[in-house]
Amino acid sequence: MAHPILLALALQAAAPTLSAELQPLAFLVGSCWHAPSPNWTTTDTHCYTAMLGGRYIRDVHVVQGPGAPYSGETIYRWDPRARRVRFDYYASDGGYSWGFVTPTAAGLDFLQDRYVGGDGQAMTMRTVQTHQSDGYTNTSFARRPGRSWRELWTTRFTRVGPASAD
User: Fold this and answer.
1) Residues 52-78: pLDDT tens digits?
2) pTM for the whole thing?
3) Which residues of 8-37 are buried (b: 16+ CB within 10 A; e: fewer)?
């Protein structure tokens, strides 16, 4: 049986290189990140992996707490028509969203995220992601049609281990 450190290095070496367009998200890929909710009643874990030769990134997340877990998957890709990184999100409650990611000096901005909940209610969201050496912080805002922006929450994610490609 291979030594765990050698196995981890072999898996890391075998991981595909991300396409140039997806490099702004490289910080996240290959790791799982964990955060308590602002009210400390739930936790959110995201695991990012490269897929299809590094041309896409898959983010699988699970929110756990009282009641049944909530989960979702996001696929990031280069959109050649928009000339931007696009994401599409699918949630376990039937909700979905789509939008674009803009790299910034401090991290990533998810502006004009169009979200439709499992109940059919729509809203526009935006999230500012700020990277730190040991994690990242997400501050999310929402706006329903005809209303102004309001802050939803701020969460601080820390790396909790490698992401599995499974």
Assistant:
1) 999 999 999 999 998 889 999 999 999
2) 0.85
3) eeeeeeebeebbebbebbebbbbbbbbbee
